[in-house]
Amino acid sequence: MEISAAGRLEVRITAADVGKRVSVRSLIEHGPPGEKFTDTVGVLTSWDNGVLLITRKSGESVRIAESALVAGKIVPAAPARRRGPAASYEELARVAARAWRPVESERLGDWELRAASGFTRRANSVLPLGDPGVPLDEALGVVRRWYGERGLPAYVQTATGAEGTQELLCAELEERGWVREVTAELWVGPLAPVADLLDPAGVALSREADEAWLARYRRKGVSEVALRVLGSGPSVWFATVPGPAEPAAIGRCVVDGRWAGFAAVEVDPALRRQGLGTAVMAALARRALDEGASAAWLQVETDNAGARALYAGMGFAAHHAYHHYRAPDADGTGR
To answer: Per DSSP, which regions of 103-154 are E strands?
Structure first.
């Protein structure tokens, strides 16, 4: 916190600092005995009518009454990662988008509207990397009409927690009644250690998702549209560990320059904790290294404790959180 020369805490932020990363200390109105203050770090997304709105790295919005402020200051962007590959949010967002291409897309300024008959939110949401070229309300109207014409709900994918992410847009969407339905994280890590985890001798690699691979894939009833999305990307590989009936484990990897993106790593529930998922990732990582990749990324849901522990043990760490906001219905709700 900012401390004056006289030793007093000071509030050194104003409404003019909206959009900057700040750290504030505020009074707790109804806190546990002995706890009078709480600290909040995040992006100041608004300061209106005596209330501050701060968006944390996780995407959580915290409202703080101006009258409760004890201290506050602007803080620098999160420090550079001390391990693993360095990357900007925009670079990773574009790499992830190329690894999961929609069937149909259209530009709205720097926004990309994406559709794939409803197969996954990622392929059926707006990726807003920049300015839509028109005022926000007009842009959101275009988005709602575009998805409505395709019989799809309108989603906007945003991100928080890294330099260049979209805390301000998240706040604008929430103000307009858009509902955040899903939050996950994109993690990054060095690729070579993944390749060295286990001997992947029992893993078969293919350029296509065959019937056996699809039998293990958790999204049953995969359509032709889904197959096109799964097969999209600069260099796509599918891994399979054979089983007595369905495969014991599967995985997917997309190689794109220095990046290898892992997805759909799934193991027969009866065969978990035997290293099969790790073997799948090791086999895919070795192939990606052969193609010149050196860094890895993957997406993991915030409540998947098992996967998070596994990936942390492999050297991955969270880079940023991403969210899908759904347009409110005519009655003003997101349902």
So the answer is: 104-108, 111-115, 126-128
> Tens digits of per-residue pLDDT, 288-309?
999 999 999 999 998 888 889 8
Cβ-in-10-Å burial (0-12, 13-18, 19+) of 247 comes to buried
Query: CA-to-CA distance for 134 and 107, rounded, in angstroms?
Result: 12
Answer yes or no: are the C-beta atoms of 77 and 89 closer than 8 Å.
no
In three-state secondary structure terms, 246 is coil
Question: d(Cα 56, Cα 136) in Å, to the nearest integer?
Answer: 23
User: 81 and 297 in contact (C-beta within 8 Å)?
Assistant: no
Other beta carbons within 10 Å of 110 = 12
Rounded Cα distance, 127 and 113, in Å: 7
Whole-number Cα distances in Å, 174 to 29, 91, 161, 334? 25, 26, 17, 11
Q: What is the pLDDT of residues 132-167, one digit of tens each?
A: 999 999 999 999 999 999 999 999 999 999 989 999
Residues 16-52 as b/e (b if ≥16 CB within 10 A, e otherwise) read ebbeebbbbbbeeeeeeeeeeeeebebbbbbbeeeeb
- Three-state SS for 198? coil
Pairing type for strands 249-256 and 259-267 reads: antiparallel
Distance CA 321, CA 187 (A): 9
Structure tokens belonging to residue 196: 């060295």
Q: Beta strand 259-267 with 295-301: parallel, antiparallel or unpaired?
A: parallel
Contact 295, 260 (CB under 8 A): yes
Q: If 0-12 CB within 10 Å is exposed, 13-18 middle and 19+ buried, where does residue 14 land?
A: exposed
